[in-house]
Design goal:
The structure holds two protein chains of two kinds. Chain A is built from 14 helices and eleven strands. By secondary structure, chain A is an alpha/beta fold. By secondary structure, chain B is mainly β. Classes of the chains: A alpha/beta, B mainly beta.
């Protein structure tokens, strides 16, 4: 049985309002470069794992088969996985398990979502139904609303400021402007971020991630195959996953995501590292407060100090740990099923030294953190060269 | 029917909860096997038991956190922006609901509130939070 599982190919479609392409075509746009990057073709792939979060977005029941067939996987096994906004990371984890079990040696992971066709009120409505439909959704709470509740609690408890939230947005837009695959490639000023329209007080427009269309793909292989296929495999060194209560109101602490803390502990333990060993990370910044809470829950700073961490510039390249140097969900965009796979693509690029202007020099250990819903799901992956 | 909007059928559990709520009684369920309490109620306990009984919950508590939902989901598009809060009740259980009779300037974390019944339309009902003493609220630090 294989000891390690490696990433040997990556591909990324342009994220954005992609009315020029359908779900299957976006998937193809990511899969083709992933296969070319790996230097393999479809006959070398044993199975695919497809991450699409929601039928309402896909406008297609059973979207995995649609994508699997369209990219030419024919009669091979296909899984669809779903973990809301963390669907893509659940797909990577599932591929790891398929290879580790010996059921497959080389697996194609595809994450894709089309969201913009529903418009912002429509997309907000669909995502709102990811909340508990009996006891929370009926009050008109939305996902920006859930994170606004956490933001207010964090501001009250730790004195985190509105300005610190906006600083996360300024950073992620700065890096997104350097990422050709990002939805919005535009720098913003602190003033623009602070003055943008209120979505759910205290979060305004620039505190919220984008509703996007997009796809990302990766080829994973067993240790033996990975070494044969690639000169620069990136290894999945640790995986951690956890879950939490469906109802936000049941949680004892509204200033943390318990699932992140648990998933991170598990991933660090499996990889045999501590947070201090991480050279580069992508974290789930669906809202700016989510990135600040992630700094704390992943152990990059102490509880309550996430606001200061961004204010001191510690999450910029050159700081203590560069975070979301691809623009994050905020600027790169957040096509739900694609996001987790896109995170794997970004960390693989960083560890290969292929991130261009956004490169974190000499990065050896990377981490991706992907949250589903408001912490109901969490996946943390640790990567090494 | 329960909620400003809903997408689930009215089960026996919800029908009973709504009937009691109309009489200003907030009902939760308690597991007869392990004693776990649930508010809002559940038909089954997390311990696996389906042997649950009703109990009347406290209707007083304090605000833990809140937001003004300014951008509304499609199903709520006919409403004006509303405040949603999470409150901790005196028995320790926590609820999410809309909060009325306050503005963002008078509202703060820790404000004492009461859970009351609100008719949304002839056949729709919800619970909501109302400040207990809005004028004296700032004394309750």
């Amino acid at each position: 049985m294989t000891e390690k599982v490696g990433i040997v190919g990556i591909g990324h479609a342009k994220f954005g309002k992609r009315t020029d392409a359908t779900l299957r075509e976006l998937a193809h746009e990511a899969v083709t470069p992933a296969l070319e990057d790996a230097g393999v073709d479809m006959k070398d792939i044993d199975a695919s794992v497809v991450g699409v979060a929601c039928e309402d977005f896909a406008a297609q029941v059973s979207p995995a088969v649609l994508i699997h067939d369209y990219v030419g996987m024919r009669d091979k096994p296909v899984f669809r996985v779903e973990a809301a906004c963390a669907t893509g990371s659940a797909a990577v984890r599932t591929a790891w398990a398929l290879i580790k079990s010996g059921l497959a040696e080389v697996v194609l992971v595809v994450g894709a979502e089309t969201m913009t066709h529903l418009g912002t009120p429509g997309a907000t409505e669909v995502i709102a139904r990811a909340g508990d439909t009996r006891w929370e959704y009926p009050f008109g709470i939305t996902f920006p609303g859930f994170y606004a509740l956490m933001a207010m609690a964090h501001m009250h408890e730790y004195g985190t400021t509105k300005e610190q939230l906006s600083m996360v947005s300024v950073k992620n837009h700065m890096y997104g402007a350097m990422n050709p695959y990002a939805h919005v490639q535009k720098k913003i000023t602190l003033e623009e971020a602070m003055k943008s329209v209120v979505i759910c007080h205290p979060l305004n427009l620039y505190d919220c991630c984008l509703i996007s269309d997009g796809a990302a793909a990766a080829v994973l292989a067993s240790e033996e195959k990975a070494k044969r296929i690639s000169d620069t495999p990136v290894w999945l060194a640790g995986l951690g996953a956890a879950s939490d209560t469906m109802m936000i109101s049941e949680r004892k602490n509204l200033t943390e995501l318990k699932a992140t803390k648990t998933a991170a502990e598990r991933a660090y333990r499996m990889a045999g590292i501590t947070p201090n060993n991480v050279d580069v990370a992508v974290v789930h910044d669906c809202f700016t407060i989510a990135e600040i809470i992630a700094y704390e829950d992943l152990g990059f700073c102490k509880k309550g100090e996430g606001g200061n961490f961004i204010e001191e510039g510690q999450s910029y390249i050159g700081g203590k740990i560069p975070i979301n140097a691809d623009g994050g969900l905020k600027s790169k965009g957040h096509p739900l099923g694609a996001t987790g796979v896109s995170m794997t693509v970004e960390i693989t690029k960083q560890l290969r030294g292929e991130a261009g202007k956004r490169q974190v020099a000499g990065a050896e250990i990377g981490l991706s953190h992907n949250v589903g819903e408001a912490g109901q799901y969490c996946f943390v992956h640790v990567y090494s060269r | 029917m329960f909620g400003y909007v809903s997408c689930l059928p009215e089960t026996k559990l919800v029908a009973k909860f709504v009937e009691e709520l109309r009489n200003e009684r907030l009902m939760g369920t308690r597991c007869r096997m392990c004693g776990a309490k649930y508010l809002p109620p559940r038909a089954h306990c997390r311990c696996g038991s389906a042997d649950v009984e009703w109990f009347e919950a406290s209707r007083e508590g304090k605000i833990l956190t809140y937001t003004l939902v300014g951008f509304l989901p499609q199903s709520m598009s006919k409403h004006a922006p509303y405040i949603v809060a999470i409150a901790e009740l005196k028995d320790g259980s926590r609820l999410l609901a809309q909060l009325t009779d306050v503005t963002l300037t008078t509202l703060r974390v820790g404000m004492p509130v009461q859970v009351v019944c609100r008719s949304v339309s002839t056949n729709r009902i919800v619970y909501e939070f109302k400040p207990i003493k809005p004028i004296c609220a700032r004394k309750e630090a």
